[in-house]
């Protein structure tokens, strides 16, 4: 996870001071890209301890198409609490756009099902895309999507490298990136999604490419960042997925096992709302 620390150091050293919606203040750069080869291990930050539990449940919740935090609450995940209304609703955020993007004629599009269908039937397509950025519905969302748009890409197996399966990569465009708290979650979440999609399409997960728009360190995270930058990344853990699961909608929390994760201690920070 050297890539993550490089990002943090880059923004720490070269970011400009910039005000933001939350009133916290940030140090920010515009435009940055990281690449994680998923064959080298699972890209979970090792320079502080992270709870993969919250990340897995959040992704399962997105894939269910849910936008009420009750599933998260039942599973003791609190990362969306601050944005929900008194009934636990967030408006038509990620889950709603991924699974049931509304069309002008009153129908709904399941972008995840379409992506799986395209990967299986037309893997060379350059249109294998999921967008959470539904311009017409932004106003109804508790928070406009930060990880807004992602695309899958399939390369044929490279026989010289001993590959037998097609190689699946995913690139995400994230318009706004909270480097200390959010980005480690976002990397793990999309790496996991890429591995899940690869499994159900009988492909091998290759690269996750993370492209950032406004990449910022909140001013109340700078001290934590300084501490984290003194730490040396450890070897990456592995993530084992139950090989029996053949549909993207059938994964449950119990189907994932993290092995050999030996991070530095957790570093606490306040989330900006
Ligand atoms: N808003 C802000 N300011 N930052 C974000 O990263 C962010 N998100 C989601 C929506 N709005 C955001 C919410 N994701 C934590 C992590 C991710 C979140 C929100 C909060 C957090 O507090 N993490 C702590 C505790 C984790 C836990 O409870 O397990 C941590 O130490 O990692 C990014 O898309």
From TrEMBL:
Record-level GO cellular component terms: cytosol
Top-level taxon: Bacteria
Record keywords: Cytoplasm, Methyltransferase, Nucleotide biosynthesis, Transferase
Catalytic activity: dUMP + (6R)-5,10-methylene-5,6,7,8-tetrahydrofolate = 7,8-dihydrofolate + dTMP
GO biological process, one term: dTTP biosynthetic process
EC number(s) from the headed UniProt entry: 2.1.1.45
UniProt subcellular location: Cytoplasm
Family statement drawn from the similarity comment of this UniProt entry: Belongs to the thymidylate synthase family. Bacterial-type ThyA subfamily.
Protein name: Thymidylate synthase
């Amino acid at each position: 996870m050297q890539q993550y620390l490089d990002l943090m150091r880059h923004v720490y050293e070269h970011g400009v001071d910039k005000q933001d919606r939350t009133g916290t203040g940030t140090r920010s750069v515009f435009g940055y890209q990281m690449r994680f080869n998923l064959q080298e291990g699972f890209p979970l930050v090792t320079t502080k301890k992270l709870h993969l539990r919250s990340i897995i449940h959040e992704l399962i919740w997105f894939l269910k198409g849910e936008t009420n935090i009750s599933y998260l609450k039942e599973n003791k995940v609190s990362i969306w609490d601050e944005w929900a209304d008194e009934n636990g609703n967030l408006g038509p955020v990620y889950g709603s756009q991924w699974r049931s993007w509304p069309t002008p004629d009153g129908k709904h599009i399941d972008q995840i099902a379409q992506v799986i269908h395209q990967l299986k039937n037309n893997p060379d397509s350059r249109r294998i895309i999921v967008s959470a950025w539904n311009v017409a519905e932004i106003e109804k969302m508790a928070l406009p999507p930060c990880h807004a748009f992602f695309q899958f890409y399939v390369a044929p197996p490279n026989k010289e490298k001993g590959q037998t399966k097609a190689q699946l990569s995913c690139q995400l465009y994230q318009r706004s990136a909270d480097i200390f708290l959010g980005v480690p979650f976002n990397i793990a979440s999309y790496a996991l999604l890429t591995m899940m999609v690869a499994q159900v399409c009988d492909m091998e997960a290759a690269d996750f490419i993370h492209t950032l728009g406004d990449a910022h360190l909140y001013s109340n995270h700078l001290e934590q960042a300084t501490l984290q930058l003194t730490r040396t990344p450890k070897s990456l853990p592995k993530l084992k997925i139950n090989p029996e699961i053949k549909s993207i909608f059938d994964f449950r929390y119990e189907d994932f096992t993290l092995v050999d994760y030996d991070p530095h201690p957790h570093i606490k920070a306040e989330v900006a709302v």
